[in-house]
From TrEMBL:
The lineage of its organism: Bacteria, Bacillati, Actinomycetota, Actinomycetes, Micrococcales. Residues 295-382 form the Erythromycin biosynthesis protein CIII-like C-terminal domain. This is Putative glycosyltransferase. The keyword Lipoprotein does not apply. GO terms for biological process: carbohydrate metabolic process; vancomycin biosynthetic process. Residues 3-41 form the Glycosyltransferase family 28 N-terminal domain.
Amino acid sequence: MKVVVAAIGSRGDVLPFTHLAGRFADAGHEVTLVTHATLVGAGHPGLRVADVSSDPEELLAGPAARAVRRGSPRQLSRNRQLFADFIDSARQPSLEALDRADVLVASTFAIAAVHEALDRSVPVVRAHMWPEHADLRGVMPLLPYSWWLPAPARVLARRALRRVEPYLGGVDGGWRRGRLHLVARHPVSLTTSTLGSLYAYSPELVADEPTDGTVTGWWTGSGPDRPLTPRVAQALDHGGDWIYVGFGSMHQRDPGALLRRVDAVCARLGVRAVVQVPGAPAVDLPHLLAVTDEPHDELFRRVHAVVHHGGAGTTGAAVRAGAPSVVVPHFADQFYWGSRLHLLGVAPRPVPRALATTGALARAVEAALDAPVRRQARELAARVRGQDGCGVAVRQVEEWLAHAESR
């Protein structure tokens, strides 16, 4: 089977699809991964990478991402060109691969690849890191702060998202004609598929079953975990109570101020922190150990709590490690995962970035370090241990395609 896996976005957006593409290759399939080559790393034997040249870090640090964080349709409209350019960057790398593909597995924002696949009658499987189907008790993934809303307001929030969708990639017919030079014969949204949808998170976190696909479990690597660097391993070995603080690819307006705030939190609680903040200046703060690239799965098993942005990948790593979370959501599905972890008893109530003062963070970390929360986190980790998300996803796509071909 010739499989094209397309994913664009931050490192956290792309990494699960890299693992999935590798498992397709392990299963004997011919695989092309359409993504940002700079985020793939050393690659995987038998895996071809078609490079998407756009820079996700630039988008996340710019006005378009700020518009999404604020949830303003007007600001999204003003930055429509930036979104459209970014989404369109996956089109050209997808063309050659799709001409001989049996199936496309596309991330939420790989909309250009979906358009091209539909025009070539290539079956499409959409893959999502959050539950598009859920009743959203707690949050509308792409609309910040809606986790405070009652049920009727959440319904309105979902309708509002549908109105915003065209700005998150220009998926309307005009964009299709103008950018892809294709006839607007297929309405395409963030969830369009022809075979089914894959949901790459653990069913232990979200009880609602999708009607259009399968919840697989997280997509992680099948090999041994990368070890910690000696510097970090030695620091953790020396004892003391350590936490982790990092917000993935989320742009920080003042990284130095963030570090000082975290240091103050640690001083107040008598803990130390491994901090991973891109762009942070070199500062000598007594309670912090700054790092650049440590393996989350291994690191999170060694700390007492994980302070993070609530990205799907980081959320999964914290849960698998049995570490309580403190979620500081910035935008999108991060609010959803922060709410879910709180409802599951493995995290205090999320602290949105705008409200993350020294006092608020200290109270949240202190709550996460409570014995009942730590016990609940360990119990949840035991329930998700052994789940093979990539294996489930590969077998499901094989089954869907075989069923479609037998009709």
